[in-house]
Amino acid sequence: MILYSKMGEVWRHSYILNNMLTVLPFAARVFTDHITYIQYLKMYSHIVKRNDFLCSVNMEVVSHNLSYRKPFKSFDLNISYQKFDNNGLYFTIGFEHLLNKNFKDMRGKNIHQEKFSSSHKPSIGWVSSNYEKIHSHIDHVRNVVGDITLFGQYGVFVPQTEFSLDAQRNWIHSSQNIISSLCAHICIENHDADGYFSAMPAYSILSGTAPIILGNNKIHRKIFSANSFIDDASLGTKPLHYEIQRVSEWINSARYDELFTPLFSDYCDFITSCDIMSSEAQRKSQLFRDRIVKL
What is the dihedral of CA 266, 268, 274, 279, to 10 degrees? Predict the structure, then answer.
């Protein structure tokens, strides 16, 4: 198996690489979300030649970058958040993060009562280095929750806390250290594409901090317990300070498995034991996609 990616460091620690793609034929060529332009040209060269088993991995939204886009019908297997009638296994970046345990479970250590008793205005932050997302949503966020503190490339600097991890997990863990000091954290998906899920609420939930989920993508309702987040549907029905404290106390006292819905637990049991080369497994994964995506 040959993996084409410009994020080799991340892929070495990937769940899907180490636990799922190992069943591919020896001659398989795997093209991921992040490939160089040279690799992009090689991809089309192999599609034309058709000498090897070809696998496409698109767990992130294809509109972000040309290197994410692939002619899916030309591949023998597609691993993607998208809908496929055949030869497609439903999987997205959020599931990769959760199954690979890229988050630290910091719950129970960060529920400090002084965070809530010192002021009627709880500290609310937003960790993001995606300027497009910030620019698109900042006015709405401030209109909904009022004052927030922005962290990341366009806000307060997020210091690197661990140096033995790959770049992706280091950003997650460094962000969690910031988020754990907040009462609540803003969570917005990068995109509302059908089936896409990036596990943004997990940054907050596993940091022991209440996530406030805004935006059009509501797939989190099928992943996380209704007790573990605040979203558009509940905002305004009760005082925000009360809701933040209630959710924080619940996620810090809950068992890990209680953070998720039974549907997501069933999906995890399936995806961790299925044969991704099986057409039946691919069909079943699409049925899970239908259940997870449709509210």
Answer: 70
Q: How many residues does the chain have?
A: 295
Cα–Cα distance for residue pair 227/224, rounded to 1 Å? 8
CB-based contacts of 175: which residues, under 8 Å, 6+ apart? Answer: 127, 151, 158, 203
Angle at 209 between CA 94 and CA 195, to 5 degrees: 20
Nearest to 52 by CA among 35, 34, 31, 69: 31
- Judge contact between 221 and 116, C-beta under 8 A: no
Per-residue pLDDT of the chain (295 residues; tens, 9 = 90+): 999 999 888 898 999 999 999 999 999 999 999 999 999 999 999 999 988 999 999 998 876 577 788 899 999 999 999 998 889 999 999 999 999 999 999 998 655 556 666 555 779 999 998 888 899 899 989 988 889 999 998 999 999 888 888 888 999 999 999 999 999 999 998 888 899 999 999 999 999 999 999 988 889 999 999 999 998 766 766 788 889 999 999 999 999 999 999 999 999 999 999 999 999 999 999 999 999 998 7
The residue type found at 169 is R
HSE at residue 142, side-chain half, CA atoms within 13 A, is 9
DSSP codes, 109-143: SS--THHHHS-SS--EEEE---HHHHHHHHHHHHH
Residues 6+ apart with CB under 8 A from 30: 1, 2, 3, 4, 21, 24, 55, 56, 57
Structure token pair of residue 247: 């959710």
